[in-house]
């Protein structure tokens, strides 16, 4: 190997080194799959040639609005074709895509727009009132608003803002995409659920997203020409990067605005959907569908599920209906899923209860990652793989974020010891498979969405009758978990459960609002710290 010391002339050039980016998938598909269906949404149908043209016009139109490379362009959109187009068109003009959770309240939207510095925002008419209120309370300059009408669903534009189709019409179909000079350039800005206060801005790079798309094809064993149903919100880890990967395979993205049992069954029966990703609550929706909402189909639908471990009973109920489910796990900070419960043939003959318990495991690292294991969070040493000892899930690999925007302290802490600290507590089985045991922070996961107990407590404490409160997760058959508030009232003060729930609902997104309020003295330590573990036990019995 001595000759390798002399590498004169063996440099990176435009011929042998191209920065990795998911944008390449659509540029290739525009030629290789030009006439294949790329997008399907009710009466809206576009081939890959048309998809590429629309994304190109979007990129050009944004440049004409003054969007420059490195600027942030936000979206407040459901899973409609324009949202898929934004995933390519926004970065194709060199901008950074900031997909905002459509379920957020105006105060948090205003914070995200201010913190990320969005120059423009694409917004569905349904969410314009929240956006308008957010803009009113912003500290910084307001973004340009582009209204994205959804005529297919009867959600028409109001004519008060520039319309999305007009923006596309203004674009140059010959616009030359601005591809990254460096694959470390920022591609997307996604905000966490703010489980310890204000949400943090997770910055993702082109390289990580590209490798996520490649690794997912391997782990999901995706075939050529899949038909993929967008149930995972495009604002959630960029739809787990699935929409970015579909052009690689000539697949069709079937858009789904409203996630109902009927919409899912119709898409499978009428559109021939073969793959979908979904939180366990969606699996329950499928299992518990009314007879009139069900449709028959004659193929197996492959499902990735994440957000919380699916109950074994749910897996046992859904698979006979024609669904093959794989549990995956990840975070916003890891672009979406980075572990998979890779199935071993030897498990096929186990009793049903054991098989479905294994299927609910968090799993092992996917192929684009370097190492995912459970460690002692303080000493950074591996825990015993005995299925009993607990440790924090630690993650290392290329599909880990660049860091938190404008928050170097939180970034350094998250990457301490050369791994990303997930904050999730797990046991590890002798075969290396992880299984989440608990949450390091008091996170409530309701319907796949993370809820900060601190945020909910902060709102309830603003009620004049409330002395102290603590919010914990209460198990729920439909949502997985819902917020349950334990409240101590001030001496002589009165308040009812319905009053406090209404008070919170006026100040929080609906999914964050407590569904149950219990009035009692809160258990505390000698130093006055509320003992939430006791409250969780009470909530489980309610």
Automatic annotation (TrEMBL):
GO terms for molecular function: ligase activity; metal ion binding. Residues 455-529 form the AMP-binding enzyme C-terminal domain. Homodimer. Its EC number is 6.2.1.44. Pfam families: AMP-binding, AMP-binding_C. Coiled coil: none annotated. Belongs to the ATP-dependent AMP-binding enzyme family. GO terms for biological process: fatty acid metabolic process. Residues 27-405 form the AMP-dependent synthetase/ligase domain. It comes from the Bacteria. The keyword Metal-binding applies. Keywords: Fatty acid metabolism, Ligase, Lipid metabolism, Magnesium, Metal-binding. It is an enzyme of class 6 (ligase). This is 3-methylmercaptopropionyl-CoA ligase. Its cofactor is Mg(2+). NCBIfam families: PRK08162.1. It catalyses: 3-(methylsulfanyl)propanoate + ATP + CoA = 3-(methylsulfanyl)propanoyl-CoA + AMP + diphosphate. SUPFAM superfamilies: Acetyl-CoA synthetase-like (SSF56801). InterPro entries: AMP-bd_C, AMP-bd_C_sf, AMP-binding_CS, AMP-dep_synth/lig_dom, ANL_N_sf. Gene3D superfamilies: 3.30.300.30, N-terminal domain of ligase-like. PANTHER family: ACYL-ACTIVATING ENZYME, BUTANOATE--COA LIGASE AAE1-RELATED.
């Amino acid at each position: 190997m001595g000759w390798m010391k002399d590498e004169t002339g063996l440099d990176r050039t435009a011929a042998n080194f191209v920065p990795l980016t998911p944008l390449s998938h659509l540029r290739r598909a525009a030629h290789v799959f030009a006439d294949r269906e790329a997008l399907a949404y009710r009466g809206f149908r576009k081939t890959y040639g048309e998809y590429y043209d629309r994304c190109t016009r979007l990129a050009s139109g944004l440049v004409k609005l003054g969007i420059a490379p490195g600027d942030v362009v936000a979206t407040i959109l459901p899973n409609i074709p324009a949202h898929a187009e934004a995933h390519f068109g926004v970065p194709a003009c060199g901008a950074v895509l900031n997909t905002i959770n459509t379920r957020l309240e105006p105060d948090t939207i205003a914070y995200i727009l201010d913190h990320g510095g969005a120059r423009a925002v694409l917004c569905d008419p349904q969410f314009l009132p929240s956006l308008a209120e957010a803009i009113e309370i912003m500290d910084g300059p307001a973004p340009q608003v582009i209204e994205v009408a959804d005529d297919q669903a009867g959600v028409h534009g109001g004519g008060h803002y520039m319309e999305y189709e007009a923006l596309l019409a203004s674009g140059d179909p010959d616009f030359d995409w601005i591809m990254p000079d460096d694959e470390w350039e920022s591609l997307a800005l996604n905000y966490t659920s703010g489980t310890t206060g204000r949400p943090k801005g997770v910055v993702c790079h082109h390289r990580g997203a590209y490798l996520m798309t490649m690794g997912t094809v391997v782990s999901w064993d995706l075939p050529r020409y899949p038909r993929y149903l967008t149930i995972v919100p495009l604002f959630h880890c960029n739809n787990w990067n699935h929409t970015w990967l579909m052009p690689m395979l000539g697949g069709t993205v079937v858009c789904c605005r409203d996630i109902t049992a009927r919409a899912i069954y119709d898409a499978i029966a009428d559109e021939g959907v073969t793959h979908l990703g979904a939180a366990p609550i969606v699996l329950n929706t499928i299992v518990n569908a009314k007879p009139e909402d069900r449709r028959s189909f004659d193929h197996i639908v492959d499902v990735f599920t994440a957000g919380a471990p699916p109950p074994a009973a749910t897996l046992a109920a859904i698979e006979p209906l024609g669904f093959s489910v794989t549990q995956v796990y990840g975070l916003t900070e890891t672009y979406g899923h980075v572990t998979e419960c890779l199935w071993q043939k030897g498990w096929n003959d186990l009793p049903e209860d054991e098989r479905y318990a294994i299927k609910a495991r968090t799993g092992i690292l996917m192929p684009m990652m370097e190492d995912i294991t459970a460690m002692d969070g303080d000493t950074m040493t591996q825990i015993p793989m005995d299925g009993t000892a607990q440790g924090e899930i630690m993650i290392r690999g290329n599909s880990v974020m660049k860091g938190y925007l404008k928050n170097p302290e939180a970034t350094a802490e998250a990457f301490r010891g050369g791994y990303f600290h997930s904050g999730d507590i797990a046991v590890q089985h002798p075969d290396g498979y992880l299984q989440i045991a608990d949450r390091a922070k008091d996170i409530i996961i309701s319907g796949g969405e993370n809820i900060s107990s601190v945020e909910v407590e902060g709102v309830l404490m603003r009620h004049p009758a409330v002395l102290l409160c603590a919010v914990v997760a209460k198990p729920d058959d439909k949502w997985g978990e819902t917020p349950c508030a334990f409240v101590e009232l001030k001496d002589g003060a009165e308040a009812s459960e319905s009053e406090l729930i209404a008070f919170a609902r006026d100040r929080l997104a609906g999914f964050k609002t407590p569904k149950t309020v219990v009035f009692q003295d809160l258990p505390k330590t000698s130093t006055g710290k509320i003992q939430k573990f006791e409250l969780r036990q009470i909530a489980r019995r309610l």
